[in-house]
Amino acid sequence: MKAFKRALWVYHLNTGSCNGCDIEILAVLTPRYDVERFGIMLVGSPRHADVLLVTGPVVKQMVPRVKRIYEQTPDPKLVVVVGSCGIEGGVFYESYSLAGPVDQIIPVDVYVPGCPPRPEAIIEAVVKAWVKLEKAEQGVR
Amino acid sequence: MMQEETKKATYTIPVGPIHPALKEPIRLALTVDGEEIVDADVFVGQVHRGIEWLGMNRNNPVQSIYLAERICGICNISHPFSLVMAVEQAAGITPPPRAEYIRAIIAEMERIHSHLLWAGVAAHEIGFDTVFYLVWRVREEIMDLVEYVTGNRVTKAMFQIGGLRRDITEEQFPRIRQSLDYYKSVFDQLKRVFLDDKTIQMRTRNVGILKKEDALKLLICGPSGRASGVPKDVRQDQPYAAYADLDIKAMTPDMVTGTVVGDVYDRIIVRLLEVKQAIEIIEQCLEKMPPGPILAQPKIAVLLKALTQAEGEGIGRAEAPRGEVIHYVRLEAGQSTLATWKVRAPTYVNLMAVPTILKGMQIADVPIIFASLDPCMSCTNRMIITDRALRKKSIMSYEEMHRLSLQKTEKLRR
Ligand code: SF4
Fold this sequence. Notes:
The complex is a heterodimer of chains A (141) and B (414). Chain A is α/β, with parallel strands linked by helices and 141 residues long. In chain A, 33% of the residues lie in helices and 16% in strands. Chain A has a single domain, classed as Rossmann fold. Chain A contains 4 helices and 5 strands; from the N terminus they run E-H-E-E-H-E-H-E-H. In chain A, strands 2-1-3-4-5 form a 5-stranded parallel β-sheet, sandwiched between helices. In chain A, helix 1 crosses helix 4 (119-140). Chain A starts with 7 loop residues before the first strand and ends with a helix. In chain B, helix 3 (61-69) packs antiparallel against helix 4, helix 5 runs antiparallel to helix 13 and helix 6 runs antiparallel to helix 7 (173-196). Chain B has 414 residues and is of the alpha+beta class. Classes of the chains: A alpha/beta (141), B alpha+beta (414). Chains A and B meet through strand 1 and helix 1 of A and helix 2, helix 6 and helix 18 of B. The complex binds iron/sulfur cluster. Iron/sulfur cluster (SF4) sits between chains A (17-18, 20-21, 55-56, 83-85, 90-91, 115-116) and B (70, 73, 155).
């Protein structure tokens, strides 16, 4: 496997999810899956992040916050949507209180389907985002 | 006069982003006097997805089970459990006895996973990340078991009106017992880590106290109530499913320490005891489980027809890891959806305790106190801190608060 040039910092944003995806994201960080060994780390502020992991179908109340967090994340950045409900509403589609799915609000780069997706799938998505990010950077240079 | 100013000062609150360790977004408004918290308020509604509306307008009751599962990804047994009990009561369906036992088994598995998840988060909140990782590693065992029994790690899709969709067979017993034995073997270690550690004691003893009178007045339920000495447990008081045949007692902290303080430490004790209790319940269920079918009506078309023709109302109550979950449904003849569906989740009641338990505490204690209720909505990444002495508002990020919490642990250690 090709070595990655840098550590990837991710920020997790819940836009009204059921927690299912969120606990799987946490599981990815804990010893069983342990992504920190690859340098993937969860950070507490979007200002430090390279990748936004977004869960949830975006309820109306969260729209301004989602936009703001996207703007707060420095470029180059990537957005990964984790979970079916963030991709197309999932079981909540048609509900009156949704403004989403996520790609209606902010641009999305990687989609991870599943309700919730398995931890392995989340890791794969972050790696995909990583590759895309590196490519983008090479293009810039 | 002073009071009025305080109220005025806390009216605009920006919602911060979300901290991953805690789940859904929520806003808190704290009024502080220097370091001390003099008032607190909670604001909810950032994850409103209109689930009940969907159940009343789009789905038939069987489809609503999967919607109920997604009310919360952590309690995704308790919610469908209550819903199917309510619908069964409304439509007059009795699930077979074997299904009742399997329901109890998976509900207890959920309790183990949820309490361990909580214990990890609580350790993280006071800066013990090693313990957080330890507990989450231990938790993966139950996730494996859940996957083995139900086919999925998180959303299990086990429930069906009138029974279950999957059986537990004899061949699966050894694997289940193996996991239970594993938990019995690590239990003492967990107990030592959480209850004997000096620093954990200092950070949690006499912190965030909820007295018994207050708990009764605010109707606090679940482990948070039991930690204040209210021995209330739906499984004990109004047994449902197989719980009536089992030996269940509400866990209170005096079983370990002899007294009830009602602080964060007591809440840890209660949850640890409940993990042990859950293991014992699963063992009893495996022993007593009767043979037989797992569905009252295996033909789904017949079931749906019966539900459409049914008329009546029902209430389902279940003891979720966080307290009592209640689902109320009404069925009307000729209507394929639920005519009424109302969900009451335990956190909504338990949040009422937040102002009481935060008052008089320090800002550095907010994360652990808030987490000690195990609120199933999330933390705020930012809160507005109104300093009464300085008369100014400042916004504090969750990170900053977490840092304060770490500093306090460090200080106490020295
Ligand atoms: S995709 Fe499914 S599990 Fe994930 S947050 Fe949405 S409803 Fe929950």
